[in-house]
Amino acid sequence: MHKLTYLMAAFTLGVSSLWAQEPVDFTIELDKPTGKISPHMWGVFFEDINMGADGGIYAELVKNRSFEFDEPWMGWKKLDKSPEGTFLIVNDTKRKGNARSLHVHKPFPEKLGLQNEGFRGMGVKAGEHYSFSVNYKLSKPGLKMRVELVNEQDKTIGGGTLSLVDNAGWQTASVEFTAAETTAKAKLNVWIEGTGDAAFDMLSLFPKETWKNRPKGLRKDMVQILADMKPGFVRFPGGCIVEGRDLATRFQWKKTVGPIEERELIINRWNTEFKHRLTPDYFQTFGLGFYEYFLLSEDIGAEPVPILNCGMACQFNTGEVVPLDELDPYIQDALDLIEFANGAVETPWGKLRAEMGHPEPFHLKMLGVGNENWGPQYVERLDAFKKVLNDKHPEIAIIASSGTDPEGERFEFLDEKLRSMKIDIIDEHYYRPPSWFLSGAARYDDYDRKGAKIFAGEYASHTTRPNGPGRSTWEAALSEAAFLTGVERNADVVTMASYAPLFGHLDGWQWSPDLIWVDNLQVYGTPSYQVQKLYSLTKGTEIIPIKRNGANVIGQDSLYASTVYDEKSKQLVIKFVNYNSKPVQANFVLNSKKKLGTSATKITLANADLNVANSFEEPLNIQPKEEKVSYKGKRLTETFTPYSFTVIKIPVR
């Protein structure tokens, strides 16, 4: 099993024309399933990279709303020249998680103005409603606040006025208004009028229409494109941000729950990771925190799969580790997370979940310990986690890292160690060129059926990288479709799979390719998105053998295939990849005592140009084309177009 064999590489990389006009015969054994398919087989991997959270799915439009960035004025500028001391950034360490606030001393009647640039601008739409809110504390009454959205020509396109009531302590004021036009690059002006003294914090602007219309919630279109996949799981919060560049900047879930205004901001580790894509204004405010991740998973019918730091920082950066005798707080974080997700409302963390609005448990079943960690230092720390978790929560499956690569010394070492530890699920990652995916369709055919399950946690075919937005090509996606026939054929071993990264922002990406691209107004799925979506929507419940000349279809003559049966819809599903420049005619002989319906559904992704990609201008270059087809008897003949991925759904009576 450890000697990974990739069969038929010579076939997959070339194009055969010798048999192109001759029908190719396949046999499907419908009555002889070889294994069950996990109900959460195909899912999504979320990491706050490429402005995926702040500036992305978290719908806040104001950047640095609480002045907590390393440079407190980042994202803001003063619109008027004011006397020294008019604006002060005050750091009050008695305020939990959010020490800084803006103090305004205004003894003169002339108005003062601030402008926020948003996340590469603010995307607003004509006719939509927006809500501005601010936390404030008056020390000398007499001030009021007026806000306005302005377009790229500084024309006002919406706004309103807030009255600031004299009252002891911090309080909140808000105003709603409607935008008069659509623009991706709006800015927010905040005018302070009258005379008086006040402190301001959490200056915030959200669209009213968020996902499920939750106040200060998630961007609706970005959640919807995930929901459309019907993913079986959501893995969060990453990714390398779990580790941090050092342990001080690791992801700590407890700082991401509770009141939004008390969550402690940290720098995003992708802020300065790549010299070619520096993003010094990239931070994590944790408005999208662990509670919101669990809620998102529940909303779209997906299993939550949180990943926690194991006491190791990113080994590509500092490689810091916590001493083994100081690991207990990290393990306690795992125990407390399980209590937060599943505990009764009488428990401390279950009580917090209930106070946040969700008294029912989230039914957590899996937990990842470490992300892309490797070496004996990882095994030692994982073993400490495992002993405690197995003892206190044997119902929770542990997911462990197999490192950064799908082969090589690191992989072989970890694969052996994790299996000897009897880890439940091993997380394998592969960022490789199309040739690797084509030649790897047999990767899991010889894996141990009785050993650990596999999580293909991060996969992506790279034609070039980094190659900019929109360059997730059809070549890459079709090679993934071919590889995934092997994943699906071995779904009794591979229990989960997800592409990575998930989101890329047109104006704020660091890494590409990505599954879904967004700007401040739009969202579209790449060809790779269309491929995984088709797999997810037709995942089936049982693996059905499909053979050519008695062998699995893993690249002979550049053809790939897998079949499943879906007990819920009573359908046989054939997935077929033609990685050739010419059409292929195929005959499918179905060996079964069951009766087949004569009317089937055929869904095709295809393009003769492997370099084609989707884009904001042409988001549907690669999109599924669905048609009704008819078959008679149990011998089916079908023609597959060049460079195509086809799904055929046949009713079974």
UniProtKB/TrEMBL annotation:
Entry keyword set: Glycoprotein, Hydrolase, Signal
Pfam families: Alpha-L-AF_C (PF06964), ASD1_dom (PF22848)
Enzyme Commission number(s) of this protein: 3.2.1.55
Alpha-L-arabinofuranosidase C-terminal domain ranges (all copies): 457-644
Signal peptide per UniProt: 1-20
Catalytic reaction annotation: Hydrolysis of terminal non-reducing alpha-L-arabinofuranoside residues in alpha-L-arabinosides
Record-linked SUPFAM superfamilies: (Trans)glycosidases (SSF51445), Glycosyl hydrolase domain (SSF51011)
Family: Belongs to the glycosyl hydrolase 51 family.
Protein name (record): non-reducing end alpha-L-arabinofuranosidase
